[in-house]
């Protein structure tokens, strides 16, 4: 980075691994916002080394040294290593090597943090992870600093922009999952192999980090329930709207006395809640705490400049000497199994249209202690299978333990009058 014209005794010298979208965004911001960054950091931030196998900077960064070897970033002239290449093994080796040498790390790599974060947190290492979760939303800073005097009881987040874009397109345009996914890929919101996003793994890694920061538990995806969005249909979205909900893919973390639940899955969100209005690739996180009640943060969840902004916030804190070391794992973090959690449920039951069928379904639900809150059964939705007409019976239940719902669904699926797979989607109740 070209040195600032103002006289400064100190400079924060950084080395960057990778030159993808986020790294290019970081270089752009360092040039365009140089004066403000210098004022905020108390010194210029200068790029002195870049390790990249193929890409070249899109902006003029002066005399930065290029190399293909990651080891070049461990040189003595690098104060902070910024890991923006993604992946796991090489990133793990680079981060570990830098920390051993006493160099602070800033990374946007939620995958490597979810797998190896416990190795690096709680010691003397400085690891900046603001960019690893929810892009431009400063949720890590909020959990570390802004809410540090609160007992955090729960958080719910729309933390994968790909899933949110697909569900929004299906909901608002009536397009199929496959068509919405194809459009997301065309726009660059989804990878050629989208499984990491649409199967919920990306959101699960982010939730593991958020839960660790919120509850002081180890970073872990063990015992986390993970479900993607491929089973959600346009019909489900339409019925959800009619019942007063939107369907979004969310991560949920909750404190249950001495245990903690972490789960990622599609959820019905009340249309009256602001989170239900979060659309497209936007992210949102709502946090419930004992002092402030609840607070909602909404913003861009990905993209070069928003994520680069988060990287810069960590670099500026490091320059100021105010970057707090991460403290997680103080609580044991015993997890509540998904079968022990409570929710309301949306059910879509394909049932033969004849007298007594609804009574059979109601009897099974009653035996399992499940009450019906709302139900929709439309004659115009009638279809035929093997010559016999059937209709979807759509309902929202009152709160019930998941194990009881599992038992009820097993019994319902065995009924001769039920034709096809029953679709179940949990309802996200933020205040419970």
TrEMBL record:
Pathway: Amino-acid biosynthesis; L-threonine biosynthesis; L-threonine from L-aspartate: step 3/5; Amino-acid biosynthesis; L-methionine biosynthesis via de novo pathway; L-homoserine from L-aspartate: step 3/3. It holds the Pfam family Homoserine_dh. Its EC number is 1.1.1.3. Coiled coil: none annotated. Keywords: Amino-acid biosynthesis, Methionine biosynthesis, NADP, Oxidoreductase, Threonine biosynthesis. InterPro entries: ACT-like_dom_sf, ACT_dom, Asp/hSer_DH_NAD-bd, HDH, HDH_cat, HDH_CS, NAD(P)-bd_dom_sf. Residues 346-426 form the ACT domain. GO terms for biological process: methionine biosynthetic process; threonine biosynthetic process. GO terms for molecular function: homoserine dehydrogenase activity; NADP binding. Belongs to the homoserine dehydrogenase family. This is Homoserine dehydrogenase. It comes from marine metagenome.
């Amino acid at each position: 980075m070209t040195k600032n014209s103002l006289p400064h005794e100190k400079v924060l010298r950084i080395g960057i691994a990778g030159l993808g979208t986020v790294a290019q965004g970081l270089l752009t911001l360092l040039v365009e916002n140089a004066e403000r960054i210098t004022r905020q950091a108390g010194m210029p931030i200068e790029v002195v080394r870049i390790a990249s196998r193929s890409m070249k900077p899109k902006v003029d960064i002066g005399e930065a040294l290029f190399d293909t070897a990651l080891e070049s970033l461990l040189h003595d002239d690098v104060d902070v290593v910024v890991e923006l290449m993604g992946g796991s093994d090489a990133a793990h080796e680079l981060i570990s090597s830098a920390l051993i040498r006493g160099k602070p790390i800033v990374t946007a790599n939620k995958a490597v943090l979810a797998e190896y974060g416990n190795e690096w947190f709680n010691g003397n290492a400085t690891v900046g992870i603001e960019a690893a979760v929810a892009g431009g939303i400063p949720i890590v800073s909020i959990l570390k600093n802004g809410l540090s005097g609160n007992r955090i009881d729960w958080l719910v987040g729309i933390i994968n922009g790909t899933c949110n874009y697909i569900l929004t397109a299906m909901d608002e345009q009536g397009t199929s999952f496959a068509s919405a996914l194809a459009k997301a890929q065309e726009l660059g919101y989804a990878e050629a192999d989208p499984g990491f996003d649409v199967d919920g793994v990306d959101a699960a890694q982010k939730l593991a980090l958020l839960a660790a920061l919120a509850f002081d538990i180890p970073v872990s995806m063990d015992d986390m329930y993970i479900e993607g969005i491929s089973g959600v249909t346009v019909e489900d979205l339409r019925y959800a709207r009619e019942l007063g909900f939107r369907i979004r893919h969310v991560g949920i973390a909750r404190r249950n006395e001495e245990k903690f639940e972490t789960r990622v899955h599609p959820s019905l969100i009340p249309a009256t809640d602001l989170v239900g209005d979060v659309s497209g690739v936007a992210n949102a996180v709502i946090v419930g705490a004992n002092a402030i009640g609840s607070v909602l943060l909404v913003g861009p969840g990905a993209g070069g400049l928003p994520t680069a902004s988060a990287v810069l916030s960590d670099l500026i804190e490091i320059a100021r000497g105010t970057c707090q070391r991460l403290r997680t794992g103080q609580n044991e973090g015993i997890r509540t199994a998904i079968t022990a959690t409570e929710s309301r449920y949306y059910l879509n039951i394909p049932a033969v249209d004849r007298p007594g069928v609804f009574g059979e379904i109601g009897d099974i639900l009653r035996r399992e202690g499940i009450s019906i809150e709302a139900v929709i059964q439309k004659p115009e939705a009638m279809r035929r299978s093997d010559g016999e007409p059937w209709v979807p019976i759509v309902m929202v239940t009152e709160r019930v333990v998941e194990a009881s719902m599992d038992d009820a669904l097993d019994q319902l699926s065995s009924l001769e009058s039920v034709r096809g797979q029953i679709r179940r989607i949990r309802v996200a109740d933020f205040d419970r």
